[in-house]
Specification:
Elements lengths: L7 H5 L3 E2 L13 H13 L4 E4 L10 H14 L5 E6 L3 H12 L7 E2 L8 H15 L3 E5 L7 H9 L3 E6 L10 H9 L5 E3 L6 H8 L5 E2 L6 H12 L3 H9 L2 H9 L2 H11 L17 H36 L1
Parallel strand pairs: 1-2, 1-8, 2-3, 3-4, 4-5, 5-6, 6-7
Helix pairs in contact: 3-4, 4-5, 6-7, 9-10, 11-12, 12-13
Length: 322
């Protein structure tokens, strides 16, 4: 596992995967399946892996937390950055800070609180958590005006924030007054597009964000990494053609449940068996599985075919040079 302090370049070197967490039928951790998913991501070029909402860290007990983070650290490759989540409530995040402080994770993400909190109280919690952790944190912004831009800027100035995961869903992502205001106060390099492939192009091209998180990358990592590379090069038409392949699964996630659909889509695509979900969540219904399965399998097949074509092209170019 990568343990060096997180720099802006680390945020941008790879799509930031946000995978589910695999469990056995008795809800114990499934190490083999979690390893299979991590290796699948790493084989596709992904080096940043964030365990948060899709991994159902909201419902993880403090008593199990050390086992989870130790397992993930042991399974990751030497250049893979594992980012665990904490919270969302203050008591839980402080208990988890005590666990993480004795381990080598370079940062952790604060899951978003929906109620009760205030701007000043949230900032105070960030300060106390980062003091307890001894390292800066990532803050997950999932609702409009979650944190005042001036407060966000102050926390960065104090060295308490590595980045913000920005996941405020808009009907039109190009029209986002809160994101615009946030970027007036905070360097765009510190803000990660946090809603997958759907708004990634708009966030990159129109707002200047330089990295994005993805759940669907767990099914099709090479295509998602290809999308990031095309965005870096400003090849937006080609990026849009890649993005289109992800919208079928993203439509299922938005129409049913982002977390639950992704959890079962990884299983249905054949990547790894994620097993049941930890309560208070459940997997998708049998009717929903019939809708999701062909979409997930098609995305996985496209990713394999695209990777095969790229490998063949590389061999042909090498042969031509020789």
């Amino acid at each position: 596992m990568k343990t060096s302090p997180v720099a802006v370049q680390d945020l941008q070197r790879s799509v930031i995967a946000v995978p589910p967490l695999a469990r056995h039928a008795d809800l114990s951790l499934n190490e083999a399946a979690n390893q299979a998913l991590l290796k699948h991501l790493e084989a596709g070029g992904v080096r940043n892996v964030m365990y948060g909402g899709n991994a159902n860290f909201y419902n993880v007990g403090v008593g199990e937390y050390a086992r989870i983070v130790d397992m993930l650290a042991a399974l990751a490759g030497p250049d893979t950055w594992i980012l665990p989540s904490v919270g969302p409530d203050y008591g839980k995040m402080m208990d988890q800070a005590a666990i993480l402080r004795s381990r080598a994770f370079p940062t952790a993400m604060l899951l978003p609180m929906s109620f009760p909190y205030t701007d000043a109280g949230l900032a105070d919690g960030v300060r106390r958590f980062t003091d307890a952790l001894g390292k800066p944190a990532v803050v997950y912004i999932k609702s409009a005006d979650y944190l005042a831009p001036a407060t966000a800027a102050k926390l960065i100035e104090e060295g308490r924030i590595v980045a913000f995961k920005y996941a405020v869903v808009r009907e039109d992502p190009a029209r986002d007054a809160y994101l615009s205001a946030l970027l007036q106060a905070v360097d765009a390099n510190r803000v990660v597009s946090g809603i997958g492939e759907r708004p990634a192009i708009v966030h990159y091209r129109d707002f200047g964000l330089k990295s994005f998180t993805s759940g669907s990358v767990c099914v099709a990592p090479q295509g998602s990494m290809r999308l990031l590379h095309l965005l870096r090069e400003g090849r937006y038409d080609e990026a849009e053609a890649v993005r289109q392949h992800y919208l079928g699964l993203e439509d299922c996630r938005d129409g049913i449940s982002p977390i639950r659909v992704l959890h079962d889509a990884v299983t249905l695509s054949g990547v790894a068996d994620m097993g049941p979900m930890l309560p208070l969540l459940t997997g998708i219904s049998s009717a929903e599985r019939e809708r999701v399965a062909p979409v997930a399998r098609a995305l996985a097949a496209w990713d394999r075919d695209a990777a095969g074509d790229a490998a063949k092209l590389a061999v042909d170019k090498k042969a031509a040079v020789a």
